[in-house]
Amino acid sequence: MRAFVTGASGFIGGHVARALLERGHEVTALVRPGGALRFEHPRLTLAQGDLCDRASLDRAVAGCDAAFHVAALYTFWSPDGEAMWRANVDGTRNVLEAALAAGVERVVQTSTVSTLHFAADGAPATEARTAAPHELIGAYKRTKFEAERVALSMAAAGAPIVVVNPSAPVGPGDVKPTPTGRIIVDFLRRAMPAVVDTGLNLVDVADVAEGHLLAWEKGRIGERYLLGNAQGNLTLAQMLRMLAEASGRRIAPRRIPYRLALAAAYADRAIEGALLRREPRIPLEAARMARKPMWADPSKAVRELGLPQSPVADALRRAAQWFAENGYLTQAKRREPRA
Length: 339
Hints:
Layout: E1 2-6, H1 11-22, E2 26-31, E3 44-48, H2 54-61, E4 66-69, H3 81-101, E5 106-110, H4 138-156, E6 161-166, E7 168-170, H5 179-188, E8 194-195, E9 199-204, H6 205-218, E10 224-227, E11 233-235, H7 236-247, E12 254-255, H8 258-275, H9 284-289, H10 299-305, H11 312-325
Parallel strand pairs: 1-2, 1-4, 2-3, 4-5, 5-6, 6-10, 7-9, 8-12
Antiparallel strand pairs: 9-11
């Protein structure tokens, strides 16, 4: 099988591409003009293109049997909301339409757990309930919600599309890093003096990659599958204690009230975001999302797909080791990450 993968230069997409190659498949990875990946393989082909350039997508996906659309503009702060819409919504439509026009057998669309409903009482989210409009905090959530609607609408019309909703993946290779990866880095750098009482669902990024392949093989058309870990529902304090044990660090950030964290985020946005035009250290969207825990129930994906449930503590240990080995924990400019 030849698989077309977008976002292979990113965290989840890179692991999806590697998982496909390890299974003996051929991979065509979309990269921006002049771009490259941080790994090479004899069955890996790079195709230059852009999510907003339909012609380049048509050329890149030609001859492929499967498509995995993982790419997205993932950030809780962006000075250009229209750019996020073009990448996450228009880009999704372009990729799906190009893949279907090329005759791929099935498309796996990567969404996010953020499109699901999270109850105020902390009950784990499932695929059964979608987030209400007022729950879509910030441009990232809104654009990913709309991108998911595009995919599910096309599936309802007969297109062979399956949607996966990863929770908060952790592990090696988080190059950017993601917001969850930033928590790990800040903690290990002793740059996290305080935390709020919130929670999230952690999952090994390797399990998330495997979930993509399982969705292609076993997923039902038009269904969503939450890719998380049943033992991964942790408070932020529990996550940091687990990370401290995995890394050998003895750090205990104090807890602060949610309102104080929110006030700090507003102040940071005003100074860093509005005045200095650079990414705030305390993203307002992340602070607002911390109001209630984002716990998740992956039982559907475990039951129908056979989603692995690898120990979260081991994934945190490997993430911490990777960040340390690649210079993320020093003030100096980090080295180019290893493949």
